[in-house]
UniProtKB/TrEMBL annotation, chain A:
Name assigned to this protein: DUF934 domain-containing protein
InterPro entries: UCP030820 (IPR008318)
Native species: Croceicoccus ponticola
Pfam families assigned to the protein according to its UniProt record, in alphabetical order: DUF934 (PF06073)
TrEMBL record, chain B:
UniProt protein name: DUF2849 domain-containing protein
Domain of life of the organism encoding this protein: Bacteria
Lineage: Bacteria, Pseudomonadati, Pseudomonadota, Alphaproteobacteria, Sphingomonadales
InterPro entries for the chain: DUF2849
Pfam families per the UniProt record, alphabetical: DUF2849
From TrEMBL, chain C:
Stretches assigned to the Nitrite/Sulfite reductase ferredoxin-like domain: 52-110, 342-393
All copies of domain Nitrite/sulphite reductase 4Fe-4S, residue ranges: 119-273, 404-542
InterPro entries: NIR_SIR_4Fe-4S, NiRdtase/SiRdtase_haem-b_fer, Nit/Sulf_reduc_fer-like_dom_sf, NO2/SO3_Rdtase_4Fe4S_dom, NO2/SO3_Rdtase_4Fe4S_sf
Keyword Iron: yes
Pfam families, A to Z: NIR_SIR (PF01077), NIR_SIR_ferr (PF03460)
Protein name, UniProt field: Nitrite/sulfite reductase
GO molecular function ontology, one term from the record: heme binding
Record-linked Gene3D superfamilies: 3.90.480.20, Sulfite Reductase Hemoprotein, domain 1, Sulfite Reductase Hemoprotein,Domain 2
Protein keywords: 4Fe-4S, Heme, Iron, Iron-sulfur, Metal-binding, Oxidoreductase
Species the sequence originates in: Croceicoccus ponticola
Length: 145, 98, 544
């Protein structure tokens, strides 16, 4: 069973995450936690100091965290974005596409299910920052989009 | 009386708790009293039923009558397709729901 | 029409396998109902009153003959021999078993169909003008843009857990046949002063318990920014739409509470940001899609008259055929509203027959209308009589398009777990009443729409006459609304006053139509007369 799933080569930073509100005053914190109502863009001026962003999903049906992750990646953030909370295997593929590269679910996931979920989709219709070539680019012979 | 109803997980059929298991016929339903939540939780966990809930019902000459029209329609079937209800041979069956 | 390439096919096939695995995990107990529910909904599978219900997507309402026939086969193989065409231009099956659902999706995938995102808090099936590609008044066929949006919105990683469902419509004429401004996003294809095609964006419309007409937020989005602009509209909604109350979670509430100008400002800001992300497919992708929607090989020099002395046929031609852009052709509407019938229902045999007729008479194409009828878009006038004879022999020739008998009705409490009252029996009684009293013809265009609850799947707010079923202390009760329209003159109906029982509402409808017949002036439709004279004369007749 998987309790922390991580797609990074660097050592995990386990420094405690501070809230977005308090982060402005403690920009040496290293880790910050985004709640669903927080504006991820408030972090953008400070991203150089951040090693880990936790995005909390108190309930899996609240999808604001997907936008938060994409906004951070679109701003060039290369640190860890960790989904925490009510995160299940059936949300993994979309979360990866939005830029999450670590998962710490409340309820551990089954290894085999994780492997299946992450290897299922060969192609994608949309371009995000995950490096996958969208189908429209494959169709027009442009694999570098 | 309080009776317990839900849908069969695999088939979606409307079912009623008959004291031992789940019946398709509302007249088989038994009074579950204060046990509704416990039975529902146990049976949902065993995957015998989905979306189980307790309703008020009365007993009359026709048998058990759910208090709300929605559950009477669930007990019978769509009033606009008598052929697809549990009483396809009775063209007047739809009047029971009103 | 559009055909899948290997990528489209693989995406749909993969989804079938994903759902097969999810269903297996549900049946084995690995997935709880709470976790499974949104997954099954995103594959169109509901739990309704009597069974599971499967809603199959019909993108922009367009089907090939073979696809239509496959829908008939599914009705026989997995359901009880019929299907229900919906106000979302989709088809629903009412008696589905969970254990069969993956196999049905596999059968659909074989004919390039699916049930992806026909429910759930995600971007739903894209709807469009049912006469697209045939209408004489369109500036361009809207469906290539709808297809581009279909692909963008399918499996969207960021927008699959939105605050609430999200519906998009695309049209390309000033005449609105798709209730465009009653969608979360309504797009009208327009031409600017330079003659270029672009998209006018209307955002924040909808029906439901708080009906709103979408305001225009951008009059011209260029074609090569369509996806990026849509993404910006959705991102602002996903981040800021209300999640504290499901009844206030639709984008219409956000646009209303934030204000159109502030919403638009935020969209523009997000749009500027996203343009730098390069997420827009190249115009070459639109150019790849467009030829699939090219005109079929219309014959030229064919007969442009409809010759028949048969009165039944003449009546049907007058009511159920629509002007076509190509000489010698019409669009023919197959009414699924026989007098006393269930609006939108068709038997498996009828569905297969309509598929055959599409192949035989309409260049292998048919359409589902949001009014729950079927269109054969391109029929030669010279062959209409033989088409009509076949329809008539199979119970499909009701001559009542856009009349008071052409009623939209949601499934209501006969099928739907959300409903408060039955809709279908009311529709049946009204069509029988007016077919019986012979007033249908005199009333002319009269759009009557019935919903069995406030969610408004039956578009009651937008009916010239609307009926809303409510639960009054456990008894079905029906409110009457007048003055709605979902066409280019979009308006929302107003409630007349206290509600009625099932027979009372039928009487009230007839009284309202009598006021019209008495007060109308030359050329006025019911809606026009209502707008001219207002509610009072109707109230007086109904309650006086």
């Amino acid at each position: 069973m998987v309790e922390l799933l991580r797609f990074r080569d660097d050592e995990p930073s386990e420094s405690p995450a501070v809230t977005v509100d308090s982060f402005g005053d403690q920009s040496n914190a290293g880790a910050v936690r985004i709640e669903p109502g927080d504006d991820a863009r408030e972090l953008l001026p400070h991203l150089a100091h951040v090693r880990r962003v936790e995005i909390n999903f108190p309930v899996f049906g609240d999808g604001r965290g997907y936008s938060a992750a994409r906004i951070l990646r679109e701003a060039g953030f290369e640190g860890e974005i960790r989904a925490v909370g009510d995160v299940a295997v059936d949300q993994l593929a979309y979360m990866r596409r939005c830029g999450f590269d670590a998962f710490q679910p409340d309820k551990a996931m089954n290894d085999a299910d994780v492997e299946v979920a992450l290897s299922r989709w060969d192609d994608v219709y949309q371009k995000t920052t995950d490096g996958l070539t969208p189908i429209w680019a494959l169709r027009h012979g442009n694999a570098d989009v | 009386m309080k009776i317990l109803t839900g849908n069969d997980l695999k088939t979606g059929d409307v079912t009623w708790w008959d004291g031992q298991g789940w019946s398709r016929h509302v007249n088989d339903a038994v009074d579950v009293g204060a046990m509704a939540d416990e039975i529902a939780a146990r049976e949902e966990a065993a995957r015998n039923v989905v979306s189980a809930y307790a309703i008020d019902a009365t007993t009359d000459a026709d048998g058990i009558r759910p208090a709300h029209i929605k559950d009477r329609i669930r007990a019978l079937g769509p009033t606009v397709r008598p052929d697809l209800t549990l009483k396809p041979a009775d063209p007047e069956a739809g009047n029971w729901v009103i | 029409m559009y055909q899948y390439d290997k990528y489209d096919q693989q995406m749909v096939d993969t989804r079938v396998e994903e759902f097969r695995d999810q269903t297996r995990r549900r049946l084995s107990g690995e997935l709880s109902e709470e976790k499974f529910r949104p997954l099954r909904l995103m594959n169109g599978l509901y739990l309704q009153l009597h069974a599971y219900m499967l809603r199959v997507a019909v993108p922009y309402g367009t089907l090939s003959g073979a696809q239509m026939k496959a829908l008939g086969d599914i009705a026989d193989k997995y359901d009880r021999g019929y299907g229900h065409f919906t106000t979302r231009q989709n088809i629903q099956y009412n008696w589905i078993k969970l254990e069969d659902a993956p196999e049905i999706l596999a059968d659909l995938a074989k004919v390039e169909m699916h049930a992806i995102q026909t429910s759930g808090n995600c971007i739903r099936n894209i709807s469009s003008d049912h006469f697209a590609g045939a209408a004489a008044d369109e500036i361009i066929d809207p469906r290539p843009y709808a297809e581009l949006l279909r692909q963008w919105s399918s499996f969207h990683p960021e927008f699959s857990y939105l605050p609430r469902k999200f519906k998009i419509a695309v049209i390309a004429s000033d005449t609105d046949r798709a209730a465009m401004r009653l969608h979360d996003i309504g797009i009208q294809m327009v031409r600017n002063d330079a003659g270029e095609i672009g998209c006018a964006f209307y955002v924040g419309g909808g029906m439901g318990r708080t009906p709103m007409v979408a305001p225009l937020i951008n009059a011209f989005v260029p074609l090569d920014e369509l996806i990026t602009y849509s993404e910006a509209c959705l991102r602002v909604y996903n981040r800021h739409g209300r999640r504290d109350n499901k009844y206030k979670a639709r984008i219409k509430i956000l646009v209303h509470e934030m204000g159109k100008d502030e919403y638009t400002r935020q969209v523009e800001e997000e749009f500027t940001h996203l343009k730098a992300q390069g997420i827009e497919p190249p115009l070459a992708e639109l150019a790849r899609i467009e030829p699939y929607f090219a005109d079929p090989a219309f014959k030229t020099g064919i007969v442009d008259e409809i010759a028949s002395d048969a009165p039944d046929f003449a009546l049907w031609v007058g009511r159920n055929t629509v002007l076509h852009k190509a000489p010698g052709y019409v669009s023919a509407v197959i009414s699924l509203k026989p007098v006393g019938g269930i609006p939108g229902d068709a038997s498996a045999d009828q569905i297969r027959l309509m598929g055959d007729l599409a192949t035989e008479y309409s260049f292998d194409e048919c359409r589902v209308m949001h009014t729950q009828n079927i269109v054969l878009p391109h029929v030669e006038k010279g062959r209409l009589k033989e088409l009509y004879d076949t329809l008539a022999a199979n119970g499909l020739a009701a001559p009542n398009l856009d009349t008071i008998e052409d009623i939209i009705a949601c499934p209501g409490l006969d099928y739907c777990s959300l409903a408060n009252a039955r809709s279908i029996p009311v529709a049946q009684k009204i069509s029988e009443r007016f077919a019986g009293n012979g007033k249908t013809a005199a009333l002319g265009e009269l759009k009557l729409k019935i919903s069995g609850c406030i969610n408004a799947c039956g578009h009651h707010h937008a009916g010239h006459i609307g009926i809303l079923g409510v639960d009054k202390k456990g008894v079905e009760n029906y409110q009457l609304l007048l003055g709605g329209s979902e066409a280019q003159d979009t308006s929302l109906g107003k409630i007349t006053g206290p509600g009625f029982d099932e027979d009372g509402i039928v009487d009230a409808v007839e009284k309202a139509t009598d006021v019209y017949l008495e007060k109308r002036e030359d050329g006025e439709r019911f809606l026009d007369t209502y707008r001219r004279i207002g509610m009072d004369p109707f109230k007086e007749a109904i309650y006086g």
